[in-house]
Design a protein that fits this description.
45% strand, six-stranded mixed sheet, Hypothetical Protein Aq_1857, Chain: A, alpha+beta, globular, 9 strands
Length: 111
């Protein structure tokens, strides 16, 4: 499925610990139509849903719905904190091209 870095797991744990209402939740990672390249990444704190693929790392969970799983297979989810901003970042080998902001992409055509 996806690979989650230590930085991403640590940041999610920090987020969950800072919000009592988030107990038992994880990070939902998905794909939706939109953005300048056709598809965009969506992330939110949420509950596990039936059919989700679950990636557990360092005591926290990341959920990927079945529709998004094919677009994210082999991707790496990281957390970056730099001069241009902080946030979760996806390196996606299934992206044929990405937009300048890095939040949308065009999917590669199947072989």
């Amino acid at each position: 499925m996806i690979t989650v870095t230590e930085n991403a797991a640590r940041q999610l744990r920090t987020l969950l610990e800072s919000r009592p209402e988030a107990e038992g939740k994880g990070l939902r990672v998905g794909i939706a139509k939109g953005g300048c390249s056709g598809l965009q990444y969506e992330m939110s704190l949420g509950d596990r849903k039936p059919g989700d693929e679950i990636v557990a790392r360092d005591g926290v969970e990341f959920f990927v719905d079945t529709e998004s799983a094919d677009y994210l297979r082999g991707a790496t989810l990281d957390y970056r904190d730099g001069l241009t901003g902080a946030g979760f970042h996806i390196e996606n080998p299934n992206a044929a091209r990405t937009c300048g902001c890095g939040t949308s992409f065009e999917a590669a055509r199947p072989a």
